Amino acid sequence: MAITLVYSTTTVVLDPDLEWIDENSWHPVEQAVQRTVTGGLIVSSAQRTAGRPITLQPTDQSSAWMSRATLDTLKGLAAVAGRQMSLTIRGVDRTVMFRHHDVAIEATPIIFYNDVDNADWYSVTLRFMEV
User: Fold this and answer.
1) Beta bridge mates, 24
2) In the chain, count of helices (H) and strands (E)?
């Protein structure tokens, strides 16, 4: 099933071999625990309403290669602060933005041609958060 990122009239189709590596490490409950000076316990809990991380990365160096043209489109989308987009993964639409505080796009060249425009291929990790 394809993974798509949409903003306005721009649609980026991402390789379905990108793995959502932190899907099961996020929990919808926030909790803070404190001790009082008398030894009592204060527990504060609340539902998280946003901020779920969505990190997409290849499972290994031989999967989910991305063309330079696709990478450039993603970098253009990431170049605008606060931009919200629609990410569809496993058939579910999620409103996301890039996680710039965690390095939003990390790209490693796999195949590089210094004399051919847009023929390069990259291994790319994308970091979003649900808003």
Assistant:
1) none
2) 1, 11
Record the tokens describing residue 56, joined without a space: 């997409």
List, as one string, the DSSP characters of 66-84.
Answer: EEHHHHHHHHHHHTSTT--
Judged by DSSP in three states, 105 sits in: strand
CA distance 47 to 74: 31
Q: Are the CB atoms for 24 and 53 separated by under 8 Å? A: no
115: amino acid identity, one letter:
D
pLDDT digits (tens, 9 = 90+) for 41-92: 999 999 999 999 999 999 998 999 999 999 999 999 999 999 999 999 999 9
Phi and psi torsions of 113, nearest 5°? -115, 120
Confidence of residue 116 (pLDDT cuts 50, 70, 90): low
Name the DSSP class of 102.
G
Residue 21 has pLDDT above 70, yes or no: yes
Q: Residue 78: name the closest of 15, 125, 16, 20 by CA.
A: 125
φ, ψ of residue 34 to 5 degrees: the values are -135, 150
